[in-house]
Amino acid sequence: GWLDVFSGELTQDAEQFSQWARFVDVTSDGSEIWVEDPAYVDGEYTGGVTVWSVTPDGIHREVADIGALHAGAIDPSGARMLGAPQTDEGFAVVDLGSGDVREVPFGMSGQSCAVVGWLDATDVAALCHDPVTDEAAAAMDRVDFVAQGAGLYRVEAATGGGAELLHTFADGEPVPEAWTGTVTGDGSFAFIASSGFPGGCSLGVGAWDGSQPRTILGPGEHGANMFFLEPGGPGTVLVTASQSCESSGVQGEVTSVDVATGTARVLTPWLEAFPEDGIDYWHLTVTSAAAAR
Hints:
Strand content: 35-45%
Number of helices: 2
Largest sheet: 4 strands, antiparallel
Distance between the termini: 16 Å
Number of strands: 24
Structural class: mainly beta
Helix content: under 10%
Radius of gyration: 20 Å
Strand order of the largest sheet: 3-4-7-8
């Protein structure tokens, strides 16, 4: 459904999905892109993630069944979407017009690679590093990205033309978490900074300006360790930060960050709970945010 932020009126879409679905973005022609994931039906794993296009007048069109574990962002032109296939050797690019699904190899033999996000309308940013041992992977140990020779690569996604090293990470530099890249300009993007622990806490928000990674938002005075990133206005991102990674508190703070300058403006501040009055964090916090277009 849709919420009119001026009137407060909530309008439900005429046709709903039969299984759990997630909104991805809007394409260049104004259509909504949704990903429907049946996951488990009656206790049986079904797999098969389906991409849907919904026109402004509500017509549903099945774009593709990508069978993916993850469906990522739409490219800046609004024509293609990223997807993660069952292997870690590459990724998929879905043509939202034709429904064609094309697998693109990372082309990095002997490396562990993951998609970060789009660099521009044709190229994808990927993080690759030397593989960790099987024992370390099984124990979900922290990955020392510098020791593992981690690098940021440009992968040509339009025709699968290979990978180009953009940067080798050094101590103290923010390293992107997989699938968190948000395009902020031609060849530049913001990302959530990884702690190195698989599925673990995050360190903040970083940015790649085409030549160097840098931190634009850290844990702050409240020690935030969980970050969610969404596009903001021109040149900005919206960051929802909380302590919920390692504590039961779900208190969150939404900040608008200028990617070029790092200037941060708090939109919804951190509020204290008053459990003695029956008011807990759930009544006072913001858990997600998105910018209207």
